[in-house]
């Protein structure tokens, strides 16, 4: 993979002109952090492996049931605002699964959830969740956050087998 090739213009053209009904997976290196590609609406699955160009405003534009983001520019304060918007049903109403790559779970809890009501679930408690591509996974513990309509987001951290992923499963 050649990171020197500038694909920004071609990727923007593709996102603006292609009709995607279900799944969008990208692995291109966008160089411009102000890249203005538009995401298709009502996706089933959005996976942006190289998402360094994704900032808070771009995050709020995403409309997908399942979302996976790699490294991004979203600050802890912005993640806090994002979760508050999710709780208030102002964004991501259809979200079922959200995955962030390589996040420090304890730092996230301390810096993002500090003023958000949440419940730490004992590691001995096993629950079954729908994860990516409608797979069913049994998971232990986690942190629960409730939305105003009663839906719950359970946050988990997975180790190396899950690529150091931070997961948010909605149920």
From TrEMBL:
InterPro entries: F-box_Sdz-33. It comes from the Eukaryota. This is Sdz-33 F-box domain-containing protein. PANTHER family: F-BOX ASSOCIATED DOMAIN-CONTAINING PROTEIN-RELATED, F-BOX-CONTAINING HYPOTHETICAL PROTEIN C.ELEGANS. Pfam families: FBA_2. Residues 34-99 form the Sdz-33 F-box domain.
